[in-house]
Amino acid sequence: MTPGFSGEVAEYYAKYRPGYPPPVIEALRVVFALDIEDIVLDLGCGTGQLALPLASRVRSVIGMDPEPDMLRLAGESAARQDVRNVTWVLGADTDVPAVGAAVGRRSLAMTVIGQALHWMRHEELFRTLAPLFRAGGGIAVVANGTPLWLQDRAWSRAVRAFMEAHFGTTLQATCGSGAEDRRRYAKALRATGFTDVRETVIEYDTELTFDQLIGSVFSAIPANELPRRDDRPAFAERMRRALPPGPYPESVRVSVLTGLMT
Ligand SMILES: C[S@@+](CC[C@H](N)C(=O)[O-])C[C@H]1O[C@@H](n2cnc3c(N)ncnc32)[C@H](O)[C@@H]1O
User: Fold this and answer.
1) Distance (Å) from CA 154 to ligand 1 centroid
2) Is 137 in a helix, a strand, or coil?
3) Alpha-carbon distance 249 to 179, whole Å?
4) Ligand 1, closest atom to CA 17?
5) What distance in angstroms lies between residue 176's CA and the mean position of ligand 1's atoms?
6) Distance from the CA of 179 to the center of ligand 1, in angstroms?
7) What is the pLDDT of residues 96-154, one digit of tens each?
């Protein structure tokens, strides 16, 4: 079951979610010694935040996601950027055995999973992927910063309070971006036989306008809980009034957890 990335949420994701800065792509290239002969799988590729910048470094990318709207927008973005070596495949982690049957053993240089592993059965997935990697290939689990409502900033605390009051719930880190998640994933990688398991961190500072902030918030709300289109301007206005004046500074910490197969 796809966790709510359909329709307008996919549109907000494509438009407002930040991608990854070049040092993240470079870190992946270095760790797995990616070259122009390689095939990589981007599982849970969304609208192509990793698949697209990786495409110029390798022979081909398989961008796989169970949400057709995310894939459609990824394909449109690829066409705009004239990226032609990504194959967009509708599928989830449970379909990886079919990918394996298609590409064969020892054929993948990397599987990258950005902000998506928490929806997968990661232990089973790691076992399925292990025989598919060439020597020195492996898995990268990428977390793109801290959710906008969980940062240690006055504006972020205000976003959180506003959202918690609106949805009548307590917001927690559920996107696999926490240190405890990383420890679990690292342990599972080692248990599956991946070696040299380590985290690379890339940090940078940025600033969000209110439109970027609210667009990003909408991209993180499950499609069935998104305020109705007609109600969205009022929702945005109430949030704007609950926040200090922008712009909103953010320190982004991208975590890249990797494990290699020999
Ligand atoms: C938060 S987005 C991440 C998109 C992109 N990888 C990034 O780093 O920004 C999570 C994506 O995982 C996909 N997804 C959810 N469950 C999945 C599963 N079981 N297998 C593969 N992808 C899944 C969703 O459809 C969504 O596109």
Assistant:
1) 29
2) strand
3) 22
4) 9
5) 11
6) 20
7) 999 999 999 999 999 999 999 999 999 999 999 999 999 999 999 999 999 999 999 99
Q: For residue 173, what pLDDT band results from cuts at 50, 70 and 90? A: low
User: pLDDT digit string (tens) for 25-38?
Assistant: 999 999 999 999 99
**Closest to 219 (Cα-Cα) out of 80, 49, 84, 24:** 49
Instruction: Dihedral sign for Cα 185, 191, 194, 197, please.
Output: positive
Query: Nearest to residue 125, comparing CAs of 104, 145, 139, 142?
Result: 139
Please tell me the residue having the least CA distance from ligand 1 atom 16. 119
Residues near ligand 1 (Cβ within 6 A)? 2-3, 5, 17, 43-46, 49-50, 65-67, 70, 92-93, 114-116, 119-120, 144
What domains are there in the chain, each with its CATH number? 7-147+174-207+250-260 (3.40.50.150)
The pLDDT assigned to 197 comes to 98
Each residue's pLDDT tens digit, 66-104 = 999 999 999 999 999 999 999 999 999 999 999 999 999
Q: How far is CA 223 from CA 12, 98, 105, 166, 254, in A?
A: 11, 29, 37, 16, 26
> How close is the Cα of 44 to the center of ligand 1, in Å?
3
Give the model's pLDDT for residue 2.
58
Q: And the tokens for 133?
A: 């990697």
pTM strictly above 0.90: yes
Helices (H), the chain: 7-16, 22-31, 51-55, 68-81, 96-103, 122-129, 154-167, 179-191, 210-219, 232-242
Q: Which atom belonging to ligand 1 lies closest to the Cα atom of 175?
A: 1
Among 17, 115, 129, which is best to mutate for testing ligand 1, by the most ligand atoms less than 8 A from CB?
Answer: 115
Tokens of 86: 């990504």
